[in-house]
TrEMBL record:
It comes from Gymnodraco acuticeps. It comes from the Eukaryota. This is Dynein intermediate chain 2, axonemal-like.
Length: 115
């Protein structure tokens, strides 16, 4: 059985592509410092420190035994009837259902599943 992940968004809903181009840098705003605000700030010596928000993790590879699997499906239109019962004939299907419902193992399995 194949597992497929469908993406429900249409291509038109992704938005437009950005149009980027090379051009020289340009100055948009030149704001000189305000000397009256200097007492509000503290002068510190610069220092280098590494910061990591997540724990260190490592990758590990292992050779395992091969497992071969097949993808197959079943057509459930027939309902899993025995070969001697024609699912198209209503009389045969009703007769088979009555026969199975009288079986004691069927009743026990229904009670276990219901609980």
């Amino acid at each position: 059985m194949e597992i497929v992940l469908g993406y429900p968004r249409l291509r038109s809903e992704f938005g437009r592509q950005p149009l980027l181009s090379d051009r020289p840098a340009s100055l948009i705003l030149d704001l000189p410092p305000d000397p009256s605000l200097a007492p509000c700030f503290l002068l510190k010596n610069p220092r280098d420190q590494g910061l990591q928000a997540a724990r260190d993790m490592s990758e590990h590879q292992v050779n395992t035994e091969r497992f071969e699997s097949d993808s197959c499906g079943i057509n459930h239109v027939e309902g899993g009837w025995p070969k001697d019962v024609n699912p198209q004939e209503m009389e045969q299907t009703i007769r088979f259902r009555k026969k199975v419902e009288k079986d004691e193992s069927y009743v026990n399995s229904l009670l276990q599943l219901g609980g």
